[in-house]
């Protein structure tokens, strides 16, 4: 395949996976489906989340960077948790202009750990900071064909909450940032 065709194919595959993740997450949330909690190596979870995002970032011309000192294990519903992180990274990639950077940071504190996604997009509006994790909330309701349905942040927030964690929306000097704080 030519380079252009290969890039289009990667974009289609990545978009299909994203849509599949949203549908699966919504069905799980509605049906109350349970995935077993398992002991997961935090450094491997971080690495997998990063690797999962590379194709979409490349297809959008976004540089994906990472830094992590995550260590140890945590009891997680692995696929749910990876989908939640994937939703955050996908949003960051979507809102960062081509040529920009999305940065994933994993860090340990004395009694907890956290994962933060930084983008170089327009950041969150005051309304998005207040309501962005509510089900079906969309900041710009005029964008009906943009692929956003107000589910990604809500699903991520529900998954994090089911793990006794917190999801926090913020801005930094170059764009938006979303932090998952876990006990």
UniProtKB/TrEMBL annotation:
Check the record and name the SUPFAM superfamilies matching this protein.
ATPase domain of HSP90 chaperone/DNA topoisomerase II/histidine kinase
Tell me which domain of life the UniProt entry assigns to the organism this sequence originates from.
Bacteria
Asked whether the keyword Cytoplasm is assigned, the reply is no
Which terms under GO biological process does the entry name? cellular response to phosphate starvation
* An MF annotation (GO) of this entry: phosphoprotein phosphatase activity
SMART domains in UniProt: HATPase_c
Q: Which UniProt keyword terms apply here? A: Kinase, Phosphoprotein, Transferase, Two-component regulatory system
Residue ranges of every copy of the Histidine kinase domain listed in the record:
1-183
The reactions it catalyses are: ATP + protein L-histidine = ADP + protein N-phospho-L-histidine
Q: Where does this protein reside within or beyond the cell? A: Membrane
EC number of the protein: 2.7.13.3
Q: What is its main location?
A: membrane
Question: Does the keyword field hold Phosphoprotein?
Answer: yes
Record's GO cellular component terms: plasma membrane
Q: Under what name is this protein listed?
A: histidine kinase
């Amino acid at each position: 395949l030519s380079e252009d065709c290969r890039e289009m194919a990667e974009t289609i595959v990545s978009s299909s996976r994203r849509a599949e993740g949203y549908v699966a997450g919504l069905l799980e949330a509605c049906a109350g489906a349970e995935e077993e909690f398992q002991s997961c190596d935090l450094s491997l979870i971080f690495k997998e989340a990063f690797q999962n995002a590379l194709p979409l970032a490349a297809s959008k011309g976004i540089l994906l960077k990472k830094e992590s000192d995550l260590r140890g294990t945590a009891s997680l519903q692995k696929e749910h948790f990876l989908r939640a992180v994937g939703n955050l990274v996908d949003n960051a990639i979507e809102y960062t202009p081509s040529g920009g950077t999305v940065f994933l940071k994993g860090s340990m504190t004395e009694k907890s750990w956290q994962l933060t996604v930084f983008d170089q997009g327009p950041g969150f509006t005051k309304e998005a900071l207040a309501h962005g994790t509510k089900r079906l909330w969309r900041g710009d309701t005029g964008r009906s064909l943009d692929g956003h349905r107000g589910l990604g942040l809500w699903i991520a927030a529900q998954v994090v909450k089911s793990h006794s964690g917190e999801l926090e929306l913020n801005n930094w000097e170059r764009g938006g940032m979303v932090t998952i704080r876990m006990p």
